[in-house]
Amino acid sequence: MGHGSDDEDLVVYGTPIEREEDTSARKRRAIAEAGQLRALPAWKQEVRDEQGRRRFHGAFTGGFSAGFYNTVGSKEGWTPQTFTSSRKNRAEVKKQSISSFLDEEDIKGMGGSALETSQQYDTFGFTAAEHARKQASKEQKERPSAIPGPIPDELLVPATNSIGVTLLMKMGWRQGRSIRDSHADSLYESRRNARRAFLAFSGTRDDEDQDQSSDKPISDQAVVGSLEEMRVPGSTPVYVLHPKQDLHGLGYDPFKHAPEFRDRKTLQKSRGRDHKTNEVSTRGDFLKSNSGQYAPGFGIGALEDLDVEDEDIYASGFAYEQTEVDIEASQITSDHNYKLDGRKRGFNLSFKIASNSEYKLERYLPPEIPDDFDARHKFPTPIQSAINFSDSAPPEVPPPEDNSLALLIDGCAAMVARCGKHIEDLYKEKSKTNQQFLFLTGGDGCKYYVRKLWENQQKYVGQQRPDSAKSNISSDKLTAENRGKILGERPLDRSTKLQSPSLSAKEAVQLQSNLVDTFVKPLSLDGLQESEKPFANDPAKQVRFEQFLRDKYKGGLRAANIAPAGAMSEADRARERLDFEAAAEAIEKGKGENAIDPLSVFSLPGMTEQRFVAATQQESSVLPQDEKPIYPRREQFEWRPSPILCKRFDIIDPFMGKPMPVQRPRSKIENLIFMTESNKGSLVEMESSSRHTQHASMEGITDAESQGTTNDTVIELSSMPKPVDLYKAIFSDDSDDDTDEILNNQPVDPVKTSEGANMALNRLVAEDFLESLGKELGLEVPPERPNILSRSETLSGAGASVSSQNERIATDVMKVKENQSSISMVKVGNANEDALLASTEKLGLKYEKQENRTENRSPPMHKQSRNDSSRYDSSSERHKSRKRRSHDHIWNGTPESDSSSEHHRSSRRKHHSRHRKGRRSPDTESASDTRHERKRKEKRHRRTYTPDTDSSEYEYKERYKSSSKRSSDKDRSREHSRHHKHRREDRADY
Amino acid sequence: MSSSATVAQQLPRTEARALSGHEGAVLAVRFNRDGNYCLSCGKDRTLRLWNPHTGAHVKTYKSHAREVRDVHSSSDNSKLVSCGADRQIFYWDVASGRVIRKFRGHNSEVNSVKFNEYNAVVVSAGYDRTVRAFDCRSQSSDPIQTIDTFQDSVMSVNLTKTEIIAGSVDGTVRTFDIRMGRETVDNLGHPVNCISLSNDSNCLLANCLDSTVRLLDKSSGEQLQEYKGHACKSFKMDCCLTNDDAFVVGGSEDGYVFFWELVDAPVVARFRAHSSVVTSISYHPTKACMLTSSVDGSIRVWT
Q1: Are B72 and B83 in contact (CB under 8 A)?
Q2: Integer Cα distance of A529 and A539 in angstroms
Q3: Is A326 exposed, middle or buried, given 0-12, 13-18 or 19+ CB atoms closer than 10 A?
Q4: 164-183 in B: which are within 8 Å (CB) of A?
Q5: Which is nearest to A773 in space by CA: A677, A672, A685, A678?
Q6: How does B124-147 read in b/e, with b if 16+ C-beta sit within 10 Å?
C-alpha cells in the first residue's frame, strides 16, 4: 500500500526528556533526593508526593500543611456534604461514581483510563458508531477543510448496521448488490480458504497478494471484511473529496482568459502533493504570480499595497528560481482518485490502484502527407480564362446542316460561356466516347462552336461590364501610383516592393533613402564636378558631405542620423558640420555664376513639387538654429519666501512690509487675516524704509475717513490730521513715559482711580465692539510699535499707573508725532494658518499683556472722552482701526479663533493669578516678569489677536477690582522702578 | 594642461575598500561635513553610518517604511535627515538613533533632502512637484514653505546660504533666492536628475537625462560646458565636482565613473567602479577621496 502514508505513523521509544523550566523547583529537588533516599534505611525514607512534599506526617508534626494539601488535596480538606432538603428538589438524583471518591492521584494511578465497557461488548452497535464518529472527526482534523467543525456527512453516516445487515455481510453480501448475487461456487470457496490460510501465514499483505485479489475484488472484500471484528458500513471505496478552499463562487474559472496557466497550475498542485512541499510551492507561486518582481529586502506592510514604485527597476533582484521536478505519470493519475486509506479506518482493504490501466486513450499518428502534395486547390482551368476572351472574333460560320447538332452546339457554347472553360473540358472528355461532342475537338461544326462561344462570351461579358468597368475606374483613381503620377512623385523602386515584410536593417536604410528621394529629385551628386568635391582626399568625409548636402536641400522624410554617430565625438561633428556648411556655400556660389541656386538645382517641373520643396527647405534651415539658443533659457519671477523661512536662513525678509497678494476672500470676516511683521531683529533696519509706506497707507485711511474727523477735539488738541496716532499715544507706551511715571509717582485719589478704571472698562467694551465692526468692513489696521510691548510687566502696577497717567496725558498727546513716525508696518494677507495655530498658546500670553497695557492707558482715554464723548459714535470705525493698529496683531478670523480665544482666556487667568501672587511677594513676581520678557522676545513677531468681546469684559472687571483694591504706593513705586529697568533692557535689545 | 594632467594622476581611482552591508540597491552615499564619516541609504529601508577610512560600520538607522532615497547630516554632525519613498522625512538624532521628528507634507515620494547652513531648516524635494521647507526648531511637523512651481517631479535640491536650488524632471533648474525674493528658472530642455554646486557656489552642475552633464553659471544662467560620454538615461544618478573644482565626476549606467576636465570637458579618466548603475557619488570635501554606490548593493571608497 502507499508507503508514503506510513511516514506519519510514528513510533515513540522511551520517555521524553522534560524541559527543565517546566518542572518546579520542589519537584527537581525531589528527583534529586530520590537517589539518596533510596540509599537510606527504610525507616528513614520519607514518602513524598509528586510535588516533593511529605506525604505522611506525625500526629503533631504535620501542622497546617497536613490537612491543607496532603490529605485530600483541597484547601479545606474534607467538606461534609451539605444537607439539602429532598423536599424541595426531590427529582434530583445524586449521582455518585467511583471518580467522586478518587482524587487526582488515584485516577492517575489507574493509568488515566476511566472504567468503561469494552468495545467488544457492543450489543447495539453504539460503540462502533461512536468509534466511527471519533475516527471521522480525527480524520477531519487531519484534512484541511473550508468548513470549520466536523463534517456533518460523515457523522450522519450510520456507523452500524442492523443485525440483519451485519449477518448478511458476514455471509458475503455487500451493499449495492442484490442478495442472490452471492458467490457460492465451490471453486471460489476453496480459493478463499487458501487465501485465508495465506493471509494468516504472511500477516501482512503485499503487492502480489493484491494483484491476485484484484481478480475478484468484490468477493475478496467480503472475505476480508468477515475476518475483521469491526466493520465500517459502506465498503464501497470512500473517496475523499477535496474541499473547496478558494474564495470564488461556484463555476468560477480563474483560467478563463488564461488557459495557458491551467496546465501549470495542475502540474504544480500534483507536484506539491507528491513531494509534500505543497505549502511551500504554492506560497512561492502566490508571491510570484501576484507580485511580479520586487525589490529584495523586507516585506511591505500589511496595509500597504504594492505599487509601481515597488517594482525593482534595477532588475538586479534575486529572482526566485523555480525548480522543476520530474513527475512520474502514474503518480499523477493515481492522485486524481485518491482513495481513503483503509488501514486507518481499522480494517484492511486489499485494493490497489492498477499501475497500468486497461483503459488507454488511443492516439493515432497524423496521416503522412505525400511530398508532392500541394496545399492549394487547383482548378483545371481558371474561370478567368473564360472571361479573358480573345479580342479577335473568329470568322462567322454558318451553322451546320444538322439542326440537332446546331442546337447542341448553341447550348454547349452558352453553357461554356457562362460556366467556364472547365465545362468545355468536361465535354471534351465526353466527346471521346460520345460522337455528338466531336465538334469540340475539331470535328464537324467546330468553327461554328468557336464562333458561338465567342458570341455568348461577348454577351455575357457585356452584361458584366458596366459594373466592373465602373469599379475599375474608381479603383484606378485611388492607386498610390496614380496619385504619385499626378503629384509628380517618383515611383518607388520595384525592388523594395518585392521585399518581404521583414526587412533587414540595411534594407530599411535603403528604403528610407528611397523615401527621401520620393518627393524631390535627388541632387545628382555624381554629376558634381571634381572641383565641387571639396573632400575628395577623404572619401568618408566626402560621403558624409554628400549626405549633408542631401539632408540640407532635400525635403520629405529625412533619414535621421544615418551616418554612424559612434565614431565621431560631438565636437568633431559640430566642427565638420561647419566645414560642410562653408563648402556647400562655396559650391552654391560657384553655381550661382551659372545661375543655379539650390532651388533651381532640382529643376522642378511642376508647381506642386515646388510647394513641397519650399516648405522643407525652410524647415531644414530654421530648425537647427532654433534648437540651440533655446536652452538654457533663463526666466525670472518674483517669489515670496515665508517670513519664518527667512528667519531660519538668517536673512531679512525681502517682502517684509509689503502686503501679501490678497486672495479673494470667501467672506469678508473669514478671510481677513492680518500678518505681523515677521522678523523683529530686522525691524530696526527696515523701519526707515517702511516709514514711507506706512505714511502712505495711513494717509489713504485718513482720507477715506476724513468726514468723521472734522469735529474731533482730540485731533485739534494734537494738531494732527491723523487721529490714529493720537490713539496710539493714548493706548500705547513709548519709552519716554517711564521717566514721567517715576517723577509723577504721587499718592492717588482712590475715587479718581476707580473712576479711571471704570472708564477704561467702558472704553474696552466699546473698543471691542468697534473693532469687530471694523473687521467686517475690512479696514487696514496699523501695527503697534514693537517696543511698546515692554510695558506689559506693569500689570501689577496697573492701578497705580492709572493715576499717574492722568497727569501724563498732556505729554502723551505731544508725543503723537513721534509715535506715528515709529509705527511699524502691518501686513495684510494670508497668514500662515499653521503657524498661527501653533503659536496661539503663546499669543494668548501676549494678548494679555497687550490688554494690561491698554488698561494702563485707560485714564487719558477717560479724560478725553469726557471732553468729547460723542467721538466714539462719530468715528467708530476709525477707532476700530486704530485699536487694531495699536495691537498689531494677526487676527485669525477662521474658525480656530474660537479655540484660540479660549486659550487666551485661560492663559490670561493663569497669568493674572500669577501676578496677584507676585504682588504679595515682589521677588517672585520680578522673576516671572523676566521670564515673560524672555518669552516675549522670542515670540515677538508672532502675535495673534482674536476678538473676544464678552470675555474681555468680564476679565477686566475682575482684574480691575483686584488691582484697585491692592494697589498701594509702595507697591506701585517698586513696580515702576522695576518696570523701568526692564524697559531699558528691552531697548538695548532692539 | 600639464598641471591638470598631474592633478589627473591624483584622481581617486584605486579602490581602498568596499563598505558592504546594504541588502539591495544603495541609492545615496554622502560624506558628512568634514569627510570623516559617511552615510548611505538604500532600498533595504535603512540608513547606515560608516567610517569610510577604516571601513567600520558605525550604526544603522531603521524606521523608514520604504526605500530611503536621500540622507544628509547636519554640519555639527548631531542630526540626520533622511527621506524616502514612504513620503516621510525623518529627523534623526545621530547618537541615539532615534527619530526626533517626522516631517509630513509631501504627497508622494521624497527624492532629496538637505539641511540649510544653520541646520534650522530642512528642505526637501519630492515627486509631488514640490519643494518644501520644514522648521527643525519648532515642534510643528508641517512645512513652513511650499514651493510648487515645478511642472514635474523634483529630483534634487541644494542649498546655499541664501538660496534653494532645485532640479526637476521638467527640465528646469530653479533657484529661489530668499534674500532677493526671486525665482530664477533655468530651462535646460532635458530632465534634470541631480544638481550640485561648485565649492565656490558660483557654478551649477546639472546631470541631465540626455546623458549630458551641464555646467551653468549661476549668476548669468549661461551654459559654460557640457560633459558627455557616460550613459544617463533613466536613473537618478549623482554628479559632483572634485574638492578643488578641477574635475567633474559622474557615474554611468554601465557602472563606470567618469572624470572630466572642468574647462575643456575631455574625459580625463574613466574606470569601472561597479557592475551596475552607479547611483551616487560623493567627493571628500578636502582630500582626494571618493565614495560611489551602486544598485548592486556595494559602496566603494576610492582614493
Answers
A1: no
A2: 15
A3: exposed
A4: 171, 176-183
A5: A672
A6: bbbbbbbbbbbbbebebbbbbbeb
B25 contact A CB<8A:
yes
Amino acid at A50: E
Helix (H, G, I), strand (E, B) or coil at A550: helix
Residue in A634, A682, A842 to test binding to B, most B beta-carbons within 10 Å:
A634
pTM of the model: 0.35
Which residue do the cell numbers 487719558 mark?
Answer: A860
**Contact assessment for residue A760 and residue A865, using Cβ atoms and an 8 Å cutoff:** no
B133–A645 CB contact, under 8 Å: yes
User: What residues in A contact B25, CB-CB < 8 Å?
Assistant: 295, 314, 316
Query: Rounded to the nearest 5°, which phi and psi values hold at A270?
Result: -65, -40
Question: Among A871, A851, A474, which residue's Cα sits nearest to residue A710?
Answer: A871
Grid cell, residue A864, equals: 478725553
Q: Which residue of B has its CA nearest to A315?
A: B295
Give the ipTM: 0.87
Mutation to test the A interface, candidates B64, B66, B68, B222, most A Cβ within 10 Å: B66
Amino acid identity for residue B86 in this structure: D
Query: In terms of residues, how long is chain A?
Result: 990
Q: How many CB atoms lie within 10 A of CB A846?
A: 26
Strand, coil or helix: A247: coil
Residues in chain B: 303
Side chain identity at residue B199, one-letter code: N
SS3 label, residue A675: strand
Query: Contact A637/B149, CB-based, under 8 Å?
Result: yes
B contacts of A314 (beta carbons < 8 Å): 25, 235, 276-277, 295
A639 contact B CB<8A: yes
Beta bridge partners of B192: B208
Instruction: Identify residue B23 by its one-letter amino acid code.
Output: E
The answer to whether the Cβ–Cβ distance between B25 and A316 falls below 8 Å is yes
Q: Concatenated DSSP letters for A741-785?
A: HHHT-----HHHHHHHHHHHHHHHHHHHHHHHHHHHHT---PPPP
- Local structure of A285: helix, strand or coil: helix
Q: Is B221 on the interface with A (CB under 8 A)?
A: yes
For each successive 10 residues of chain A (990 residues), what is the average pLDDT?
53 72 63 68 74 66 55 59 71 68 72 61 64 75 62 54 79 72 58 75 51 43 41 48 71 76 77 52 40 43 56 51 43 43 47 65 82 74 47 66 78 77 73 70 75 77 52 50 70 49 49 48 45 67 77 52 54 78 73 44 39 39 46 82 85 78 46 42 42 43 42 42 54 47 45 60 67 62 44 42 45 45 40 42 44 43 41 43 42 40 43 42 42 46 41 43 44 44 42
